[in-house]
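2024-03-11 09:14:02 DEBUG pipeline.ingest accepted 1 chain
2024-03-11 09:14:02 DEBUG pipeline.ingest length=143
2024-03-11 09:14:03 DEBUG pipeline.predict start
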Amino acid sequence: MPYYSNLDEDQIYTIRTVVQIISVISIFSSIVVLMLYIILKEMRQIAFELVLWLCFSVFFFSLSSFIPYDTKSDNTFWCATQSFIINSFQFSSWIWCAIIGFTAFLSVDDPSRLELNECKFRLVFFSVGFVFPMLLSFTYIIL
């Protein structure tokens, strides 16, 4: 049973509606950041690219609130799908925030280190930012 099984249908509907409204705002904001990245060529630097990946994580996290599920059914497919998306992309957004902080530290501490290894940093950041949370969420669902 879901954790909100004590709530009546009106309360569940209200909670889902509020979450979906906030998710629409979040999705719209992520699309605005993507459009700015595409339109403004001077913004195509590693710092803004990291913000773009953070928005990508938030975008898919917000999309998960629109996955349909029935609170009275024992069908676990949609629940597991939503759980995987929420866990992966929420954890991914936290990691992207940490990566942005680490990059800000590197740019203040020694900017040449970041510029010399930009391709290597992108590969490591992408792996840590997306692949690691997805593997972690996948193993959690399997076990």
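2024-03-11 09:14:41 DEBUG pipeline.report The chain has a mean pLDDT of 85.
2024-03-11 09:14:41 DEBUG pipeline.predict end
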